[in-house]
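Protocol step 4 of 6: structure prediction from sequence.
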Amino acid sequence: MKIAVLGLGYVGMTAAACLASRGHDITGIDPNESKVNDVNRGISPISEPGLADLVEEATRQGLLRASTTIASLADDTELAIVCVGTPSAADGSHNMSFIADVSRQLAHFISSNDRPVTVAFRSTVKPGTVEGFILPIFEEILRDRSDLVELVYNPEFLRESSAIKDFFSPPKIVVGTSDGLRSAVMDRMNEGIDAPTFYTRFGESEVTKLVDNSFHAVKTAFANEIGRVCEKLGVSAAKVHEIFIADTKLNISPYYLRPGGAFGGSCLPKDVRALQYISREVGGHTHLLDSLLPSNESHKAFLFELATRDLRHGARVVLLGLAFKNATDDLRESPNIDLARMLITAGYHLSIFDPYVHPEALVGQNLGVLSNSPFVRDLLIDQDELSTTEWDLVIDTRSIASELRLTASSVVDINRLS
C-alpha cells in the first residue's frame, strides 16, 4: 500500500520504517525540516535500536521518503497514520492543536483527490475524541463526500528501546471503528503480524492505552512501596519479588482484574490493613496501599447507585448472595452486607437469597457479623419465595439470575460491569 505517516517522532518513525521494511511505500510527513532531511538521506532522526538500519535500507530501496507538507502525498495514498503529539497540560488534558491541524489538512487532501482514504489515529487521546472532535472536522470539509474517509483509532503499544520488536510482535492489536467492525485496510496493514486482535468501537479503543499505562504505573508504584517496606524491615525485596511473580495462577493473571464487585472476606481487607500498619510503623509511606480501602468503600457506594438509579422508593428488591463469595457462608467483611444495609437505609423492601447462609449454623466470627447485622435473619428467603415473588429489582452478586428464572422488572449483575 501507499501509506502516509504524519509525525516522525518515536511512534511515527518506527511505524514508517517497519512498514517500509514489509514492502509498503511510505511517505513521512513532519514540519521539522531537519528530521525530513535526515530521513531522505537514509538517516534515522530518532535513536532506537535497529531503526537506523531499517531507515537506511528503506530509503535505499525507494520505499521511504519524507516531506514537510501533505501536498507531497501521492494521489492514490490508501492509508494515513497520524502519530502527531498530544502534549499533556498540568491538569492532564491533551493539547489537541496538532490533531486538529493534521485532520484539516488530510480532509482537504482527500477532498481534492476525491479518493477514499483510511485515516488511522495513533496519538493518545481521551475517549470521545474521534467522534466528538475529529469526525466533525472531516464532515465540515468533506460535507456530502464524508464517505471518502474511514476513521480508525489504532493505539500503539511500543516501548522505547524495544519498539521494533514490539511493532512486529505486539501484545495485542486494537482497532477502533465507528461500528466496531473490521477495516479491510487495517487488516492489510497488520497482515502477517501474529497477535490477539480486537475490533471495537472508538471509545474502548481510545481508553485502552490510558488504562494500560495507568496499570503499569500502579504496578511500578506498588512494587516500589513493597520495596520500601521490605528495606525498612530488613527483608530481601528481590526474593519477595521472585516469589510473587512465580505465582502466575493468581498474582500475574487475569484474576482480580475484571471490573465488578468490591473486595471483601477474611483475607484481603485484613491483610491490607496489616501491611498499612507495618508500613506506618517502619515509615514506608505507602500511599497506594493506603488508598485501597477508601477506594473499595467508594466502589460499594457506586454499586448501590448503579443498581438503584432508576428504582422508585419502596420497591421490592432481592439481593442474590450475601456471603462475600459463592458456595460459602463466610460473612466476614462481605461487601454484600454493606450493600444490604444501604438498601434498607434507602427505604427499599429488601429480601436476601443465599442458599449457603444458615444463621443457625454460623459460628465464630461469622456469628459475630450476624449479631452486628440482625436484619439478616429476617430478610433471608428460600428459593420458593424467591421464584414466586414479582421483584422490581434483582441485584445479582453471583451471576446466577438467568438460571433461577425469576420474575423481575430489572436485573443488575454487579459482578459484570458492561
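Step 5 (inspection) to follow. Residues 77 and 154 are 18 Å apart (CA to CA).
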